[in-house]
Amino acid sequence: MYKTLEDVNRVITLGKPDSVIDKFVDSYLTGIAIQPYLAAEAEYGALKAQDDQPDVEAVIDPETEEVISEAYSPNQIRDERTVELVAEYPYLAEEEWVRPAVSVDVDGWKVKNYVKLRQAAYPSQAVFLDAWVKNDTEALEAYRTACLAVKETYPKE
Questions:
Q1: pLDDT, tens digit (0-9, with 9 covering 90-100), for 133-157
Q2: Which of 63, 92, 104, 117 could disulfide-link to 154, CB 3.0 to 4.6 Å?
Q3: C-alpha angle with apex 136: 134 to 141, nearest 5 degrees?
């Protein structure tokens, strides 16, 4: 199915190429964009599958003669909701559904979520601490270079 944010973080952490990361982000964003359509389709299908039901009469307390629950028509409620769904998602009224294409902005998402992407891509803090404790200037410089590369890969703007 569609990728999750955890999947995106995993491919970044594994150091996969940008093309792979972009595919995962695209799948993740498409999954988010398509959720309302899937929910509407499921609800529409369930409404269409419902058999007609008898009207429900009002319930009145015999002692106080207060109305406990109003009378209603389950079929009318179902039909009104069906009309609402079709108004919002017109393709549902067609005999064969053709869901509208969704478009996603991978680059825009990456800019907005650069913090998450950087966090997943930065080298381990353990590497830094090990180099610092050992006063290993080469390892510290390698760590610094790796961090700068992440900042360049996932810019703020």
A1: 999 999 999 999 999 999 998 898 8
A2: 117
A3: 140
CA dihedral 150, 154, 155, 157 (to 10 degrees): -170
Q: Which residues pair with 13 in a beta bridge?
A: none
Amino acid at 29: L
Does the pTM surpass 0.70? The reply is: no
Give the chain's length: 157
In tens, the pLDDT along 8-41 reads 989 988 888 889 999 999 999 999 999 999 999 9
Placement of tokens 């703020």 in the chain: 156
Q: Check: CB of residue 27 under 8 Å from CB of residue 47.
A: no
- Of 143, 146, 117, 116, the C-alpha closest to 132 is 143
- The vertex-113 CA angle with 121 and 108, nearest 5°, equals 115
